[in-house]
Amino acid sequence: MDFFNENQFHFKSKAGSQYFYTNDGVYRYSNHWGRVANCRWRLLSDKKVKSQNFYVGLAKWTSFCQLNETKKQFYISVDFDKKIVDFHHKNTYEKAFLFYADTAQKKVKQIRKLFVDDKWAKHFEEDISVLRKKIIFDYINSDLSLQEVKIKFK
User: Fold this and answer.
1) Which pTM was predicted?
2) Does 87 share its domain with 140?
3) Same domain assignment for residues 29 and 50
4) Which of the four pLDDT bands, split at 50, 70 and 90, describes residue 125?
5) How far is residue 54 from each of residues 14, 59, 78, 85, 108, measured CA to CA in Å?
6) Domain identity same for 78 and 33
């Protein structure tokens, strides 16, 4: 916050987000993240990010990539031990199964539910942690729906 108090921002959006450009990248002070106009802003933090709270984020110029809704450009990564799932642009890893941005975002949301809720597994015979890994692995490496993947394991 001191940064924005001490420096004049270069641009202020209609929604109140402030932007300050440096040689390294752009600082953004905002209370809304995610899809903004034709950009996708994601905060990467060790702390829980709450909607409607103001945060300052830095996007390095080297982190910007063209967002093309007509090409599959995103892959999904999963840390099963920490139960963390996210999607990334293909520029960071070329050999993954790719999705459109909207599809990747929807799949991430569904996978997060798989980590939290165990009710879906009551109809399966296999250990839930083993089953969860198999289902998620197939889900992030195909264009199948979550329901189609689950059916494969019944």
Assistant:
1) 0.70
2) yes
3) yes
4) confident
5) 16, 16, 28, 24, 24
6) no
Range of the domain at 23: 2-63
**Rounded-to-integer distance, Cα 10 and Cα 18, Å:** 8
Residues 16-64 pLDDT 10s:
888 999 999 998 888 888 766 667 777 777 777 777 788 888 888 887 7
Place of tokens 């969860």: 132
Number of domains within the chain: 2
Tokens of 30: 């905002």
Residues 6+ apart with CB under 8 A from 109: none
- Reported as a single tens digit per residue, the pLDDT across 53-101 is 888 888 888 877 777 778 898 899 999 999 999 888 887 676 889 999 8
Same domain, 147 and 80: yes
Q: Are residues 78 and 56 in the same domain?
A: no
Tokens representing residue 95 in the block:
């050999």
The number of angstroms, rounded, from the C-alpha of 61 to the middle of its chain's C-alpha atoms is 19
Same domain? For 83 and 36 the reply is no
